[in-house]
Amino acid sequence: MTERSTPLNPLSLTFGEFADRFRREYGKGHDQAAAAYREFFRNSPPDFSAPKAFANMSELARKLAADLCPGLPELVTETREGALCKWGLRLGDGLMIESVVVPMTNHVTLCISSQAGCRMGCAFCETARMGLRRNLTAAEIVGQVFTAKVVRGLNIRNIVFMGMGEPLDNFDNVVQAIRVMNDDRGLAIAHRHITLSTAGRADGIRKLAALGWPNLHLAVSLNAPDDRIRSALMPVNRKYPMAALRDALSAWPLKKNGTLFVEYVLIRDVNDRPEHARQVAEYLRPLKVRLNLIPYNPRSESPFDPPSEAGVLQFRDWLVRERVFVRLRTAKGRDIMAGCGQLAGRTLSDV
Asked: Which compartments does it reside in (predicted)?
C-alpha cells in the first residue's frame, strides 16, 4: 500500500477513477475495487467484510472502513410543507446549503445545490441576496444525493440542479458530479433522470453540449420577453443576451423527439402582458421546447408581486394560442421558502 496525497472519497470518483486509485493504493484488482465501490454506494455505513471479494481480507476491510470517509454534508434542519421537505445541510467549513425533497406519485425528485450562494444576481431570487460564498466540490454535490438515497433510503429517481447556485458557473465540479451519479456501479442515476437548470450562461451551454450527452435534460430560465426586461431581472443577460442564448440552445444535441425545457417565472406587472406572451412565442418558435410557467414565489423584502391565479391561467392561454407547449407548475414549498428562487442557506451562527 502506498501513501495517498488526497483522501479516497468515492463521492468524487467514477468507478474507473476509483479502481485506478484502489489498485495503486491498496494493491488490489478490479474485483475488489468493484466490490468496495458497490458496497459504499449501497449501504450506510458500508460493511466491507460482507462482499465475497473480501473473503479472508479482514484487515483490508477494516482499513477501507477507516479510509473511505465520505465527509457528508451534515443534515441540520428539516422543514416540511405537507410531504415536501427542505433540508438545511452544513458543509465542512460551516457554510449552509439547501436541498429540497419533492415526493412524486411513485418516486422522489431531489432538488440539489451546486454552489453556496450565487453570483448571478437575479432580482427575484432569494439565493442571489447571499452573493457567492464558494463553489461546491463534486463530492459535496454528490453528497446531497447520497444522503437522500443511501443514508435516508429515499426512492430518488430524478435529480434537478435547481437549488442554490448557477450550475454552469461551477462547470467542472458539476460535470464530475454528474459522471459520478451516472455510474452504474454507484448511484446509477441515468442522464434522462437528471435536469440541469441555468440562468443562461451561453458559454457553459456550449461546453456542456460538446460533451455529447443528448439524454441529459437542459432547462433554461428565460423569465422575460425581451432583452430590456430580462437584463433588468437577470444581469447575466447583459453578457449573454437572448439572441446569443438562443444560438447556444439551437446547438444543443437533442435526442430524437427530445425537447429543451424553458422556465418562465411570471411576475405581476413585469412580464405578464399579452404582448409579452406573443414575444416569448416568437422567440421560442425556432426551438423544440416545453415551457414551464411558474408563478413567482416572493423572496424576502421582494419588490415584486406574485400573479393572481386568474392571471397565470390567462397568460397560459395566451401562450397556448401562440402554439407554445406550456406546462403550469403549481407552487410547492412557498410557505417554507422552498419554492423556485427561494433557497438561501444560512451560516452556522444562524442554526
From this structure: Cytoplasm
